[in-house]
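Work Package 3 (structural annotation) set out to generate three-dimensional models for the target panel prioritized at the project kickoff. During this period the team completed the workflow that converts sequence records into discrete structure tokens, so that structures can be stored uniformly alongside our sequence database. As a representative example, we reproduce one entry of 93 residues exactly as it appears in the project archive.
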Amino acid sequence: MPAYVISYDLRKARNYDGLLKLLRSWNCVSPLESLWVGNLKGDCGAIRDLVQQQIDADDGLLVIELKSPGDWAFHKPNNEALSRAWLKANIHQ
């Protein structure tokens, strides 16, 4: 399955439990607060449409397909071990 980045700006404080539940159900990893990575079926548009159902109309959303080989680096991600493991397994340097 292709690897994707999903990033969003939630512009107003609301309940986004559905969004987090969806991303976790896809086994996505969150290296940063509003950024998730995961191996997903479908194309960027299909993933966007599914995620968009869980956010408000004024929120921002970006979906990018990652290609391997690639390059990556980070500084102080959330759950460093999990983030590093996912990136090493899916984005070969």
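The two ends are 18 Å apart (CA to CA).
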